[in-house]
Design goal:
Blueprint: E1 6-7, H1 24-38, E2 48-53, H2 61-70, E3 82-84, E4 95-97, H3 99-102, H4 113-118, E5 119-124, H5 135-152, E6 159-161, H6 162-165
Parallel strand pairs: 2-5, 2-6, 3-5
Antiparallel strand pairs: 1-4, 3-4
Helix pairs in contact: 1-5
The structure holds zinc ion.
Length: about 190
């Protein structure tokens, strides 16, 4: 069901402040890797990138797809556009591409129409009320976000958390939004 388009990145961030220590060279390599695998999909208009956690210790796109299809009864399945694994259920830092990205369909991840329609949903596997994202996850998120921002012309202020648009604790109290994305400004 999912294309075997999996992006492995080897760039790192320092914990716990998550100041990006990614070098220009690493970013360039990461972006080249993402581009190779995502450039083939044409994109429609997107305005936001919305970051989530899965709220589960482990998981992967296939599991969440099954849950969304069978329990939530969403005919398009997986509500997110991308899932970033944490090493438990999917590779650590692995980016899985959902069918909704391949088909450029609205997501089902926010609970508010505007953000589902124009928001690219990225799910980080884990429960960040209880733990932290891994360095590899943050690195992949950073590079993926950089790529999507440029590709879809999304401003940095529109890289938001689920809790920014809805009354929810997603993606968890420990999610290190901080200045990460401000520093990623082009
Ligand atoms: Zn969420």
């Amino acid at each position: 069901m999912f294309l075997p388009a999996i992006v492995c990145m080897t760039v790192y961030f320092m914990l716990p402040a998550y100041k990006p220590t990614i070098t220009a060279e690493q970013l360039k390599k990461g972006l080249a890797s993402v581009s190779r695998q995502l450039d083939c999909y044409s994109v429609r208009k997107w305005e936001y990138i919305v970051i989530h956690h899965s709220g589960t210790k482990s998981g992967n796109a296939g599991e969440f797809d099954k849950f969304h299809r069978e329990k939530r009864r969403w005919k398009n399945g997986l509500g997110y556009h991308f899932v970033i694994g944490n090493g438990d259920g999917a590779g650590n830092g692995l980016v899985e591409i959902g069918d909704r990205w391949v088909n450029q369909q609205s997501g089902a991840h926010v609970g508010i129409n505007k953000y589902n329609r124009y928001g690219i949903g990225i799910c980080m596997v884990g429960n960040f009320n209880e733990s932290y994202p891994t360095r590899a996850q943050m690195a992949s998120l950073f590079v993926l976000t950089q790529y999507l921002q440029a590709r879809c012309n999304i401003s940095s202020k529109n890289i938001i958390l689920h809790s920014d648009c809805k009354n929810t604790d997603c993606p968890g109290a420990n999610f290190p939004y901080d200045k990460l994305f401000a520093q990623a400004l082009p």
